[in-house]
């Protein structure tokens, strides 16, 4: 029996602080869980078990999570001397010569890194089925996707391998797998967590890094440990008024919650996603909040998807060519999956003027989006338009390599707006389908207002607990 698998990171850290267990005991138990579960799920694609055991035996920094096992996403999370493949054959041998600032803060918090998690190539799709590492499977149904691009992180946490794991979100990549795997996933405000020293590319302002967790308090405490600008940060989020861990359990007050089901691409919504939002609205009203239907529609947002994809494709060009320069390697079609190469070619075809226009339109949207919070504290909306899809749903036909782009837009039309505006957003696991598939609901708050989201999430977690729900592979 594993005495730690059901404990969140906060509880595991308390056992270490009290002297009841050692970091090595936690690490060895997590390694055993990875070795047992990972062959079924393919969530962890690179291990650092010897290094982790050595770190666990040595004196660790005294932080909020001293001795707790952790996994990093194989994207953005640079570690000196360790591979960072970005899920691509082009970069499979790339090893950074430094730690990213966020990883440094993870280590200062006392975490023990056990390895890297699966991600699609360059983190581009809302599923995790890359050619380099193969498909990652959803712990709730191994025929289905865990979501993406932080699918490996979600599968690892949902299956109990580790209590939480690093994740990143440029268009929903924390919230999508949180919904698909029954986890709590918060994307912080733009500039809340550091992205240095290297992430300053053409869509730097879209990307937020944080974690996938089983409990709200783990997410809040980890963000306390990592938030704040790094040296030279181009964006800085408003300072928090007190530790986020103090928001967990604090009364959220009577919130004005806007509810919307409309999406800019007109995608149909699965009945279970509608049921999840409706049940959540009833729960919120029972907790004393005001829930009113409204619209997040911004004039001209019918073209917003095109602007987002123009900016996103430009970032693919920048990423591929930037990595090529660092590795002194010329990108060729055979180095990439067909979808990635087609998106790269599309980005090349757009030109500088198109990119600058798209960026201006996205930033214009952000200003208009802020006005949607003048009479509303938080917006409630679906995270995705359907429960976890089957593996292969986002495959690219040989004659239509960009097809996954349009399928993705229909699956996750609700997530990118928080990236474009920079607002904090979260997916909360409040609903399961009759087939046993988790379905998350999304909340978006004002820019810089993670505190309200943590207070609300903790209230929902108390009123409608979810951590007792576990897939059969758990532990």
TrEMBL record:
<dbReference type="Pfam" id="PF01425">
    <property type="entry name" value="Amidase"/>
</dbReference>
<dbReference type="InterPro" id="IPR036928">
    <property type="entry name" value="AS_sf"/>
</dbReference>
<feature type="domain" description="Amidase">
    <location>
        <begin position="25"/>
        <end position="453"/>
    </location>
</feature>
<protein>
    <submittedName>
        <fullName>Amidase</fullName>
    </submittedName>
</protein>
<comment type="similarity">
    <text>Belongs to the amidase family.</text>
</comment>
<dbReference type="InterPro" id="IPR000120">
    <property type="entry name" value="Amidase"/>
</dbReference>
<dbReference type="InterPro" id="IPR023631">
    <property type="entry name" value="Amidase_dom"/>
</dbReference>
<dbReference type="InterPro" id="IPR020556">
    <property type="entry name" value="Amidase_CS"/>
</dbReference>
<dbReference type="GO" id="GO:0003824">
    <property type="term" value="F:catalytic activity"/>
</dbReference>
């Amino acid at each position: 029996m594993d005495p730690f698998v059901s404990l969140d990171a906060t509880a595991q850290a308390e056992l270490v602080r009290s002297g009841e267990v050692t970091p090595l005991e936690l690490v060895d138990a997590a390694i055993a869980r990875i070795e047992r579960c990972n062959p079924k799920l393919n969530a962890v694609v690179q291990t650092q078990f010897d290094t982790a055991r050595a770190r666990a035996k040595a004196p660790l920094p005294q932080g909020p999570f001293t001795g707790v096992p952790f996994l990093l996403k194989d994207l953005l999370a640079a570690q000196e001397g360790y591979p960072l493949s970005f899920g691509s054959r082009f970069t499979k041998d790339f090893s950074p010569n430094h730690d990213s600032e966020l990883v440094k803060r993870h280590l200062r918090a006392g975490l023990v890194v056990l390895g890297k998690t699966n991600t699609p190539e360059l983190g581009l799709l809302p599923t995790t089925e890359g050619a380099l590492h193969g498909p990652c499977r959803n712990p709730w149904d191994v025929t289905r996707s865990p979501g993406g691009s932080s699918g490996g992180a979600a599968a690892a946490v949902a299956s109990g391998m580790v209590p939480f794991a690093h994740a990143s979100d440029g268009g929903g990549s924390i919230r999508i797998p949180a919904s698909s795997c029954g986890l709590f996933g918060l994307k912080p405000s733009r500039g809340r967590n550091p992205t240095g020293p290297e992430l300053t590319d053409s869509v730097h302002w879209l990307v937020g890094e944080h974690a996938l967790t089983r409990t709200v308090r783990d997410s809040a405490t980890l963000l306390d440990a990592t938030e704040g600008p790094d040296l030279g940060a181009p964006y800085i989020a408003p300072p928090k008024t007190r530790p986020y861990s103090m928001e967990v359990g604090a009364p959220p007050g009577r919130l004005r919650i806007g509810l919307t089901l409309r999406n800019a691409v007109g995608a149909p919504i699965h009945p279970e996603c509608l049921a999840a939002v409706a049940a959540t609205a009833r729960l919120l009203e029972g907790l004393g909040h005001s829930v009113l239907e409204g619209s997040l529609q911004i004039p001209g947002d019918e073209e917003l998807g095109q602007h987002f994809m123009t900016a996103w494709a430009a970032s693919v060009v920048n990423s591929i060519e930037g990595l090529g320069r660092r590795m002194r390697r010329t990108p060729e079609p055979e180095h990439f999956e067909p979808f990635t190469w087609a998106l790269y070619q599309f980005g090349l075809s757009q030109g500088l003027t198109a990119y600058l226009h798209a960026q201006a339109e996205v930033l214009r949207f952000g200003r208009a989006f802020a006005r949607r919070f003048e009479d509303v504290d938080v917006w409630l909306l679906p995270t995705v338009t359907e429960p976890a899809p089957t593996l292969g749903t986002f495959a690219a036909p040989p004659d239509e390599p960009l097809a996954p782009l349009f399928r993705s837009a229909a699956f996750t039309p609700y997530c990118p707006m928080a990236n474009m505006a920079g607002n904090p957003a979260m997916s909360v696991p409040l609903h399961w389908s009759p087939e046993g598939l988790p379905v998350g609901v999304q909340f978006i708050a004002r820019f810089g207002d993670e505190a309200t989201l943590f207070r609300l999430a903790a209230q929902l977690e108390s009123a409608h607990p979810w951590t007792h729900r576990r897939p059969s592979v758990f532990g």
